[in-house]
Amino acid sequence: MKKKVLTVDDSRTIRNMLLVTLNNAGFETIQAEDGVEGLEVLEDANPDVIVTDINMPRLDGFGFIEGVRKNEKYRAIPILVLTTESDAEKKNRARQAGATGWIVKPFDPTKLIDAIERVTA
Amino acid sequence: MDMNEIKEIFFQECEEQLAELESGLLRLNDGDRDPETVNAVFRAVHSIKGGAGAFALDDLVSFAHVFETTLDCVRSNKLEPTQDVLKVMLKSADVLADLTNVARDGGSVDQARSAQLIRELEALAKGEAPPAAEAPAPKAATPKAASAPKPAPVAAAAAPNDEGFVPVAFSFDDFGGEEEAAIEHPAYEVIFKPKSELYTKGNEATLLLRDLSRLGEMSIHCNMDSLPPLDQMDPEAAYFSWKVSIKTDRGEDAIRSVFEFAEWDCELELIAADAGEGADGETEELPMQPVPFDLSALDEEPHAPLGVVEEEEQIAAAQAVTAAQTASNVVQMAANASRAAAADKGAAAAAAAQNNAQQASAAGQTIRVDLDRVDRLINLVGELVINQAMLSQSVIENDSNGVSSINMGLEELQQLTREIQDSVMAIRAQPVKPVFQRMARTVREIADITGKSVRLVTEGENTEVDKTVIDKLAEPLTHMIRNAVDHGLEMPEKRLAAGKSVEGTVKLTAKHRSGRIVIELSDDGAGINREKVRQKAIDNDLIAADANLSDEEIDNLIFHAGFSTADKVSDLSGRGVGMDVVKRSIQALGGRINISSKPGQGSVFTMSLPLTLAVLDGMVVTVAGQTLVVPLTAIVETLQPDAAAIHSFGATQRLISIRNSFCPLVDVGRILNFRATQANPVEGVALLVESEGGGQRALMVDAIQGQRQVVIKSLEANYTHVPGIAAATILGDGRVALILDVDAVVAASRGQPLHLETSLAAAG
């Protein structure tokens, strides 16, 4: 069975890159445009792993991660954060919100897939 | 979808983000201090940077990065967004736009300008933000108190920041000779003791160990000593630790990177095997049993989040834990638990999913559609309108009763067709906002060049109009704005002397008025210097030296070809483009432009444009047996001339007296060469039209057939340009009718030959 990835990113460019990369690697991809939409589609999408951006309108990545962790069913789902630099402060905040790991942008397909494989069975 | 398509999307997105950026900065400039505005501005730059990074657009990335850093200072209240700061930022937004364009279309940017802005941005970021303030807060870097039963103080202290893993001397004596005897690669000992947080953050000890196993040959020992009796066990706590001996040539860094995501949430000790030799027997406190590690079992198991354990299943899970002998047992247990949990929650999840779907569809959504598709639809609807009209006509001709069910059905069809047409037109309608925003940049640039201080105020930027109109509006508007700032506004010292504020205001407004869009551009400058304009017109032989002109007529002289009042040709107006070109492009859109000016108070340019170029409300008239359509917007009134009101003037000219004023009579049939002799005005109908320059003319036609909306078909596209004719349309009876170019006909009546330029070139 294909693994399902939920990606949350407000940039159409990044969403498309994620989509292409993940589909090529054999994942099923569900996409949301911000944290609010991400939480809305969460139950429906029932993903195996989540990849989320930090800077987003309405609800940012930190809020989104906290929201996911509050959900009984998804409180232990792997969540990877997309960050632009290896910004220590941001990484820390994401971790404290409950992020599992991170991917530094601009990601290359190998980095992305490696990180996902590292956190999913 | 390939990378090129994604790149295309990226540039589209850039345009949106740049618009967002600019409007956000302008709001900040107007004193808006909403944090969300600052966030939106930051996000716009951040997004551009992110995408640009993916395509290795380095110039764009590095400029966006500096810009973003400065914006971040504003966001975190380290930098007050004063007018001066925003001035730099608005310029930076312009440069960012230039860099984006260059990245897309090639070419080059003004390197000096961007380098200068980078320096200014960096200075802003530095000036207000001491380096110390940028260091991460110490609190954020402090590891959480470990809730694992046996926290090792040494390891916890060894991770004060995200990179700060400090290897701790570790002794072992259980692992000795036999592994080392077989060394081909350096051997390492890894002690990995997860805390509960590791699991709550979605990491998995088993997955990390699996990852580790890919580095080289390894053996794993699981320590289950801390496992409490069942009744004291917290099913979500971490009780196991692993001791791994691994031989790898990938080095310590590779091993550490496996635990990159987990390093805060576990105790990790990594020792090169030889470094540990000779140390004393700490492992006696942690006696370990060799555990067979079955990797294939791991791979076969479905993903099993340990945290997902329902109350009921806790017991089962706990029993499983008690029975656990190997690492793979743990995986099995969790898998069972999650399967049970999934089954329990199935129904609830389905219901929730439905809810979510409804919520999602309720939110406002947009789709992006290729413009070609919309145009094709509009074209087809145009054909539908014509076809429907033809059908109606032939039914009326064949059905003398007039009141049949077919007729009623046709009326409904007509209604529906009209509605479909309106809806389709609405798809093409777009707010004028993007064009208005571009004007903000024009104003800034010209203000810089001229040394004037200018504020642009926009109103009604959400007014919608056909996309074609918007696209063609930018150029004339840009030129008018240049004029308004360059010629309209006075220099600061002059303004002060006149008792005005130093900062001049240029106002751009858009509104709908009776089925057209009206765009007004006003300035609070000196107004038109009528003396100067008049003198210039006399010098250029535009008017006679003794001509008696009203103020309005003088003002409108500036629309004449080649007219310029600037004493010297400046950078801006020296481009050979005059207001006559502006006027012609507005007319090409089926629009009109007027100016009104008050000395000392400024000028107002008013443009009135059709909302769409695809349809037109017209008056269908007969001229010498031909059917013509006159755009309704041009017609002021229609009248039946009285023989007494017609006066001859010169050899061929005739005037009509309307309410005590004389108005030249223009025989359309003569001008278009439909007939050789002038028609008798008393037998026809006069259409009073307003033509360029505000003057009125009475167009003579033979009869009025009626008013209707017609679909514009371009003559240029299908045939060739015909002087005096703007476009064509197809009437209900299937015949082609020509749409009259009123201004061209009026100009021709003044003795000017029919020009090719004056036409509704864009029609259809």
Our count of helices of chain A gives 5
Shape of chain B: elongated
Number of helices of chain B: 26
Query: What strand order characterises the main sheet of chain A?
Result: 2-1-3-4-5
Task: Give the CATH architecture of chain A.
Answer: 3-Layer(aba) Sandwich
Largest interface summary = A-B, 48 and 62 residues
Query: End-to-end distance of chain B, in Å?
Result: 34 Å
Proportion of strand residues of chain A: 15-25%
**How much strand content do the residues of chain B show?**
15-25%
Oligomer: heterodimer
Protein name (chain A): Two-component system chemotaxis response regulator CheY
Keywords (chain A): Phosphoprotein
Modified residues (4-aspartylphosphate) (chain A): 53
Domain Response regulatory (chain A): 4-120
Overview of the structural elements:
- The complex is a heterodimer of chains A (121) and B (764).
- Helices cover 45% and strands 20% of the residues of chain A.
- Chain A has 121 residues and is of the alpha/beta class.
- A five-stranded parallel β-sheet of chain A has the order 2-1-3-4-5, with helices on both faces.
- In chain A, helix 2 (35-45) runs parallel beside helix 3.
- Chain B is an alpha+beta fold.
- Chain B has five domains: 3-134, Four Helix Bundle (Hemerythrin (Met), subunit A) (Up-down Bundle), CATH 1.20.120; 153-341, no CATH class; 371-429; 432-610, Histidine kinase-like ATPase, C-terminal domain (Heat Shock Protein 90, 2-Layer Sandwich), CATH 3.30.565; 615-749, Beta Barrel (OB fold (Dihydrolipoamide Acetyltransferase, E2P)), CATH 2.40.50.
- Chain B has a six-stranded mixed β-sheet.
- In chain B, a hairpin with a 5-residue loop joins strand 19 and strand 20.
- Chain B is elongated, with a radius of gyration of 40 Å.
- Chain B starts with a helix and ends in a 15-residue tail after the last helix.
- Chains A and B meet through helix 1, helix 2 and helix 4 of A and helix 1, helix 2, helix 11 and helix 15 of B.
